């Protein structure tokens, strides 16, 4: 039997249920309502919902079928007029009855009563220090998974590496991959990085609708997920939320560096920047997970810039501020990227993303507000990353200053040489003038001597002529 697409809406007194069943035989359709339970059977479709409130089937109930669209449009009265039914758009959470374990109520905190139980009596290690996957619940389902998918996982043998040793091995691996040349190149190439620092992510546009309905493709994914009840202790619950931060940081980095237009490399980027997905790591506080995100963003992707990391952190905070429905939409997009990846990243959906899609539908909205505040209030400094960035930059600036001084000295020497050459040329010009002047002077002198000689004779003649005798 197929699970049809469906949609629920409400007003103060009614619940409206749309069921998309285009290949059904209307004559064989059965619809049953019993308080919180709704049943739709029409071969080849089967839909069973557990609503967050009670509805009744009475004389006011309505039903119709639209042939062109293949939709059943059903209307029922609320048993308690004016009651607000929460989370009617959380598709997976409506699909099956709640199955809450029988636990000591003194130790249990049930969130929204529809699928998350926090019980501190639960062993934090699940009896296995080598587990991994969503909430570290996987122990034996996969064998040598890291070796089988080497392009996806940097930790090759999670089943033999204790959980508390993975972060240390990760740091050692990352330190060996860090490229100071690449980091400095992106630091000083302001023209290259500028567009990614000034860009704006689509969910920060003024007209963005964070409460938009799930589209058909999103509904198709959500309706195929199994409805589960999650049992955590407080430490596991915190680690699951911090793992979500880790994954979505990579998503935000991808959106910023592709200018909102994800591409075939996007699944690699999200996978690589998340140590949850590539190292099976878990975290204990917000600053720890953000430090890891910054480190990986400065080591692996094509753009490695600290200010870019800060921009992505701000994007991440704004994403959580949009609330549960939009976060689910982002995770669905990640699910689709991994399914369409050529490197078999669908395995990440099996290990993490599908469970996150179910888990998120059951979370309280206040949890995302708390995550937003925690992210916004954490400041990551370069020294926090243990990559010696400040020392590296200081050394680079010194080298840069030395190079500038060398260039200035070379330029000064060149200018001095040019001045000397110019002076020499001017001196040669002056010497030629002097020679000419001397020649003229000699010539004048000769001429003058000659004139003097002539003039010395003329007076004698005159005197002689004037002699009366």
Descriptive account of the structure:
Residues about 430-469 have low confidence and may be disordered. The protein has about 475 residues and is α+β, with helices and mostly antiparallel strands. Helix 6 (about 235-255) runs parallel beside helix 9 and helix 11 packs antiparallel against helix 12 (about 345-360). Helices cover about 50% and strands about 15% of the residues. Strand 5 and strand 6 (about 70-80) form a beta hairpin. The protein has 14 helices and nine strands.
Q: State the end-to-end distance.
A: 166 Å
Q: pLDDT under 50 segments (min length 5)?
A: 432-469
Number of helices: 14
Overall spatial form: elongated
Sequence of secondary-structure elements: EEEEEEEEHHHHHEHHHHHHHHH
> What percentage of amino acids are in beta strands?
5-15%
Please give the largest β-sheet: 6 strands, antiparallel
- Total beta-strand segments: 9
Radius of gyration (Å):
41 Å
Give the helix/strand layout.
Elements: E1 5-10, E2 14-20, E3 30-42, E4 45-56, E5 62-66, E6 71-78, E7 108-111, E8 116-119, H1 145-148, H2 163-177, H3 180-188, H4 190-198, H5 216-223, E9 230-232, H6 234-257, H7 266-273, H8 275-279, H9 286-297, H10 306-321, H11 324-340, H12 346-362, H13 365-377, H14 389-466
Parallel strand pairs: 8-9
Antiparallel strand pairs: 1-2, 2-6, 3-4, 4-6, 5-6, 7-8
Helix pairs in contact: 6-7, 6-9, 6-10, 9-10, 10-13, 11-12
């Amino acid at each position: 039997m197929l699970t049809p697409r469906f949609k629920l809406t409400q007003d103060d007194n009614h619940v409206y249920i749309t069921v998309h069943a285009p290949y059904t035989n209307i004559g064989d359709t059965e619809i049953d309502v019993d308080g919180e339970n709704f049943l739709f059977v029409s071969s080849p479709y089967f839909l069973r919902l557990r609503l967050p409130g009670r509805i009744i089937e009475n004389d006011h109930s309505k039903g119709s079928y639209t042939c062109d669209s293949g939709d059943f449009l059903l209307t029922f009265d609320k048993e308690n007029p004016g009651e607000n039914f929460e989370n009617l758009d959380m598709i997976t959470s409506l699909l099956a009855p709640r199955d809450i374990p029988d636990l000591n109520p003194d130790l249990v905190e049930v969130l929204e009563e529809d699928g998350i139980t926090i019980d501190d009596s639960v062993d934090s290690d699940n009896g296995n220090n080598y587990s991994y996957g969503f909430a570290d619940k996987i122990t034996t389902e996969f064998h040598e998974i890291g070796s089988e998918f080497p392009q996806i996982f940097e930790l090759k043998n999670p089943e033999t590496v204790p959980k508390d040793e993975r972060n240390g091995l990760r740091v050692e691996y990352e330190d060996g991959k860090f490229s100071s040349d690449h980091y400095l190149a992106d630091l000083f190439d302001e023209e290259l990085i500028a567009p990614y620092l000034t860009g704006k992510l689509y969910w920060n546009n003024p007209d963005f609708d964070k409460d938009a309905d799930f589209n058909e493709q999103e509904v198709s994914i959500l309706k195929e997920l199994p409805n589960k009840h999650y049992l955590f202790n407080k430490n596991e619950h915190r680690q699951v939320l911090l793992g979500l931060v880790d994954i979505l940081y990579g998503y935000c980095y991808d959106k910023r560096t592709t200018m909102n237009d994800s591409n075939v490399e996007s699944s690699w980027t999200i996978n690589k920047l998340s140590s949850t997905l590539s190292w099976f790591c878990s975290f204990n506080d917000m600053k720890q997970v953000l430090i890891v995100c910054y480190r990986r963003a400065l080591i692996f992707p094509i753009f490695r810039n600290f200010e870019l990391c800060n921009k992505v952190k701000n994007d991440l905070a704004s994403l959580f501020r949009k609330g549960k429905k939009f976060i689910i939409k982002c995770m669905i997009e990640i699910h689709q990227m991994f399914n369409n990846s050529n490197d078999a990243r669908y395995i990440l959906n099996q290990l993490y993303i599908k469970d996150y899609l179910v888990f998120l539908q059951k979370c309280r909205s206040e949890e995302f507000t708390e995550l937003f505040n925690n992210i916004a209030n954490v400041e990551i400094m370069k020294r926090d990353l243990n990559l010696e960035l400040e020392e590296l930059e200081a050394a680079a600036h010194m080298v840069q200053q030395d190079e500038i001084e060398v260039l200035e000295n070379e330029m000064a020497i060149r200018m001095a040489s040019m001045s000397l050459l110019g002076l020499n040329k001017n001196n040669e010009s002056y010497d030629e003038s002097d020679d000419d002047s001397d020649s003229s002077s000699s010539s004048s002198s000769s001429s003058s001597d000659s004139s003097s000689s002539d003039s010395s004779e003329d007076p004698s003649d005159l005197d002689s002529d004037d002699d009366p005798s």
